[in-house]
Design goal:
458 residues; MutS, DNA mismatch repair protein, domain I; 5-stranded mixed beta sheet; 4-stranded antiparallel beta sheet; 16 helices; 38% helix; DNA-binding; DUF4113
DNA sequence: TCTGGGGTCCTAGGACCC
DNA sequence: TCTGGGGTCCTAGGACCC
């Protein structure tokens, strides 16, 4: 059996832990740039405000109901997530951290061997919920079922139906069949908007209907092997196992960093400063998980909501690093700036930029070396005669950078390229405020990660 | 006026390998 | 006249997840 633990409106719950006066009030948390509603308290859901609603569209409604509005505070949510995962890891043989607020639990064997001591799996699930709530303040629900897809479905019902008291255990085929009938096809894990529309057009409305389509049909209409697996999993046949997260942290196969800008940017130097900042952050994460990357992608996007802008809204460029895998920000940046140059169209207004690091590998024995001396980076070629940029990594420099920023705060020491060029018109902000930076008007304190923000109790 | 960010997995054509 | 089969890697893009 698999368990799925999922926090209830996680970001809102994190805010409430440290500011209990919001316990009974309507609360929302907004995305970066205060753009969209990404977490809603039950009171807000009852108002009919959907997940992902643009804030400007629901602002008045929220105000009318005296809702509290927060900008997102990832320092807080990340740290609360780690606490929740730590609690869970202490009580189950293995878990897979699936997202910031969800984890799959490996419960195989427990039902045969341990239940005489621990009670049924649904009792164990209740114990987990109570433990997490007591130690972190975060409310959760738990689904238990023979496949991950059914565990997700069970979790959804556990959240929806108060009479289940936060736990649903789909131990028999009768209970599974019942659960499948309760869930709309669009709410099944792996069925997004496009597939949902296609399925309802074909007369497939519930998870139960979907569980009865043929494998061939699923393959043809639901993205090949992915669709075939999905249907089998609904039938109770596990197609995917648990990928345990070692020591409670997540090792990623790709690392990215991107932002929508606070305002549209047309100056190359401003966008370069943004890309350099995002790349620095991504490289920092890469070093934190002790990996090297050998594939780099840069992308820039136009405003897809502007009716005057035609698709494609986004262009990307990917490069397999000729000088081999690295985690050195300066090496990565010299390639990133040449990719950005390739994508750049003068006179275009850009809305967002991002970088992705792929092809991650651990340093050491397995590493691919170059046969000859590393080929020069684009920056070296362009700047021939100027100061050299190394193609070989300088681990000691990066380690010092990370140590300083860890101790004195993110961005204390950074590459000069991350600084936006001074603008003639731009007396608006202080020089330390980059052109691309967005809004975050209502951010709560970093209660768990900044000494100055520590809650004081009299 | 105002519309997020960080991921996973899959597809598909072309270059290239033996 | 006639021109293979089984792979990997690279790059770009799409669907989906939370």
């Amino acid at each position: 059996m698999f368990g799925l633990v999922d926090a209830n409106n996680f970001y809102v719950s994190c805010e409430r832990v440290f500011q209990p006066r919001y316990e009974k009030r309507a609360v929302v948390v907004l995305s970066n740039n205060d753009g969209n509603v990404v977490s809603r308290s039950a009171e807000v859901k009852a108002l009919g405000i959907p997940m992902g609603a643009p804030y400007f569209e629901v602002k008045e409604l929220l105000k009318a109901h005296n809702a509290a509005v927060f900008s997102s505070n990832y320092a807080l949510y990340g740290s609360m997530s780690a606490r929740v995962m730590y609690c869970l890891a202490q009580r189950v043989p293995a878990l897979e951290i699936y997202s910031i607020d969800e984890a799959f639990l490996d419960l195989h064997g427990l039902e045969q061997h341990l239940t005489p001591y621990l009670g049924r799996l649904d009792e164990l699930a209740q114990t987990l919920r109570a433990d997490v709530k007591r130690r972190t303040g975060i409310p959760t629900c738990v689904g238990v079922a023979p496949t991950k897809t059914l565990a997700k479905l069970a979790n959804r019902l556990a959240k929806k139906l108060p009479e289940l008291d936060g736990v649903l255990y789909l131990d028999t085929t009768e209970r599974q069949a019942w659960a499948l009938r309760q869930v709309a096809v669009g709410d099944v894990w792996g069925i997004g908007r496009q597939y949902a529309a296609k399925l309802t057009a074909a007369g497939i409305d519930s998870a139960s209907d979907l569980a009865r389509v043929s494998e061939a049909w699923a393959r043809k209409h639901l993205g090949g092997v992915v669709g075939a697996r999905l249907v089998q999993e609904l039938q109770g046949q596990p197609c995917t196992g648990l990928h345990p997260s070692e020591d409670g942290t997540l090792d990623r196969q790709s690392i990215s960093c991107s932002r929508t800008f606070g305002r549209p940017l047309t100056e190359y130097s401003n966008v370069l400063a943004a890309v350099a900042t995002f790349l620095s952050r991504a490289a920092e994460k890469l070093r934190a998980q002790e990996d090297l990357a050998h594939v780099l992608t840069v992308y820039i996007s136009k405003n897809r909501f502007d009716p005057h802008v035609l698709p494609p809204y986004s262009r990307s460029a990917t490069l397999t690093l000729p000088s081999g895998p690295t985690n050195d920000t300066t090496v990565l940046l010299s390639y990133a700036s040449s990719l950005l140059r390739r994508l750049w169209e003068t006179g275009t207004s850009y809305h967002k930029a991002g970088v992705v690091l792929d092809g991650l590998e651990a340093p050491g024995n397995g590493q691919q070396l170059t046969l000859f001396s590393p080929s020069p980076t684009p920056a070296q070629r362009e700047n021939k005669g100027e100061k050299e940029i190394a193609t070989t990594s300088r681990p000691a420099l990066m380690a010092s950078l990370d140590a300083l920023n860890q101790r004195f705060g993110r961005g204390t020491v950074r590459l000069a390229t991350t600084l936006s060029a001074p603008t003639n018109s731009g007396s608006a902000g202080s020089p330390s405020r980059p052109a691309w930076e967005g809004k975050a008007q209502w951010r709560s304190p970093a209660f768990t990660t900044r000494l100055e923000d520590l809650l004081l109790v009299n």
